[in-house]
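Appendix B.2, paired examples.
Example (i):
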Amino acid sequence: MTSGDPSRSGRIKARTLFLSDLHLGYRHARARELTEFLAGVEAERIVLVGDIVDALSLARRAYWSADHTQVLRALLARQRAGTRLIYIPGNHDASLAMLAQMLQGQFEVHREWVHRTARGARLLVLHGDRFDGGLGCPQWLTRLGDLLHGATVGVSHRLNNMRRRLGQPYWPLTERVKLALGVSAGYIERYEQLAAAHARAHGYDGVVCGHIHRANLRDIGGTLYANTGDWVESCSALAEHAGGELTLLRWPQATHGVRRSGARLAAQAA
């Protein structure tokens, strides 16, 4: 798969790039890393899978930096150069109805979107917050998790700022902690199962989502589950290459876990 190998081409060339949970306007968003990542990727279309601008964070504490502006400029520059931009609001940016209207004509705005891969597989694309109600997590545990998560993200942000100054690569501390805790790992597993079951029940070959800040690409009961990850914790994205292969991309590593969309999906589309 030479089109996705930057060691040969210098830049990753993708048919489709899926990004979510940029959380621009949140002081711990890794906007500088995202801008550098975008400079190394060429895509025919970019699908923004929600929580692009963090309206909830901005309402609590106004924050915006030049790095955040640069991300928007980079995306709009791609649109002017011919890249198709598709925007699916999430729970943190769903209230930005005015922004969505302003972006009409530059971004295509949809509540959900169906993506057909180069192999013909039909993937339901949505942010994923609609699955929260089916996870059965007690409210007290949710609040405690939010507090612990916020503290961990703050530590990770400071640590990675220091690592950046020392010329060391980004290290996803929050993601490692999340996966090491049984409660959060179980929550992620239930979410993934629920998302895949929803796509399967509605006749799709798979689902692409974000929301839980856990990049993953796996087969669940014959249904493809793909989560783009985020740009607060994991610095990751999902790419579809020219032949329909799906790959998780992580910053600063080029690719992580190449996963082909599967002979079964290709056969069903034939």
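Example (ii):
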Amino acid sequence: MKNINIFCFGFGQVAKNFINKLNIEKYNINLSTTSRNKTSSKKFNNINYKSYNFDQNIYDPEINVEIKKATHVLISTPPESEDHIIKNFGKALQANSLLEWFVYLSSTGVYGDHDGRWVNEDTFTNPTNDKGKKRLKAERRLKDLNMPLIIFRLSGIYSNEKNILSRLKKNIPIFTNIENQIFSRIHVEDISNILFKSFFNKDIKNGEIFNVSDNYPCSYKEVVDYGCKILNIARPKTFSLEEIGDDQLKDFYKDSKKVSNEKIKKFFNYKLKFPTYIEGLNYIRDNFI
């Protein structure tokens, strides 16, 4: 059993799923995380860990101590947090001679709108919304730390708990009818599996970028229609883009692109557990609905 000291900036669904993956793989995990709440001791899946207070420039100074002891660091925070991570903890990260793995979870939103065309890791970045711009800025600033950084650009994430089926059953989806709007998605378990594979690959260059998406980009309408079919319910009311009050959601629907995952499949010799939304939603329906 291998011992690892892992520090997670942020502890949302992706980080938790990844820690669960390490637990399944029989790793002995010394875990530390951050949250906006007061520093406290917690438990997750029989793992005792410390959650440290970190809210922009207000933070527990013990974070710097823990970072210097970490063998693995995962950043999965909202895009407004990265500037504060670099400002407050950049020196501690750079001073860590034990660090074997340093990962930033970015977003395919950095590519912006490509009118439904394919994009890959070499495609020019031109984010159209504030979140995408912040993600791209964070990527560049983290690269400037001159550390063994790996950047994973994630497509739209769904999980066994958060997915279109659960939203349809609660009758709360926002469903827009937009022509030629295509986007990519990825199940959180595939993200965790790819992160785990990156532990062992010594050929990854500093600052290397990987898109994380499934094999089949398509419209949100197609996914909703399939969800309705397997739940045997009527399709929800269609809203136009103009009727959506959420500006961030409007920005999301304005971007249309197909994100290539060829690099992760070849580089990590990885076969997706959920190659399309069909396998993912069928699995969720059969096991969680």
